[in-house]
Specification:
162 residues; alpha+beta; Signal recognition particle alu RNA binding heterodimer, srp9/1; 3 domains; three-stranded antiparallel β-sheet; 54% helix
Length: 162
């Protein structure tokens, strides 16, 4: 079936697919939650609701779930002293990375985070694009080679009068 398409139609189809992929990535970036705030986002808990407060105790390390906050330090790997210290043990054992946030009422708190997954995704996307372009070039070269061989065979048959 692909033999029925000429090169212009194939190139147009590939361009349309690339544009659709880029639009999907942009749309996904718009619709998914921002990485600026760690998951889960602030929980809607009323002042009289003590069920969740009983679970976490009176700890201030979960203030970012209930209060507005700003990111003071971006996501960075935990140091060996952080992993051994009693203060950040639960934070550093989850992902191995920490982020300093400032809760507006409570103060500065370290939370667990994951490093730049968006950057890694774009690097992966660019590598896959480069590999696909190399594949297109290799296929194009092979097609030209096979067409030339076929033309040579037809020419030799015509020379012999077959």
């Amino acid at each position: 079936m692909i033999e029925l398409l000429n090169s212009r139609k194939m190139i147009l189809g590939v361009i349309i697919l690339i544009i659709m992929c880029i639009l999907i990535v942009i749309l996904e970036g718009i619709l998914t939650e921002s990485e600026m705030k760690p998951l889960p986002q602030r929980l809607p808990v009323s002042k009289g609701d003590s069920s969740f407060t009983n679970l976490i105790g009176n700890s201030t390390e979960y203030c970012w779930m209930f209060e507005d906050y700003t990111v003071v330090e971006e996501c960075e790997p935990c140091t060996p002293s952080d992993k051994q210290g009693s203060k950040n043990v639960s934070i550093c054992t989850q992902t191995g990375f920490k982020k300093l946030v400032h809760c507006h009422k409570t103060g500065n708190v370290y939370i667990s985070c994951t490093p730049g997954t968006v950057r890694k995704f774009w690097i992966f996307l660019l590598i896959m694009l480069a590999i696909s372009l190399l594949g297109v070039l290799a296929i194009r070269q092979r097609v030209n080679y096979l067409e030339q061989r076929m033309m040579d065979k037809m020419q030799s048959k015509m020379d012999y009068g077959v």
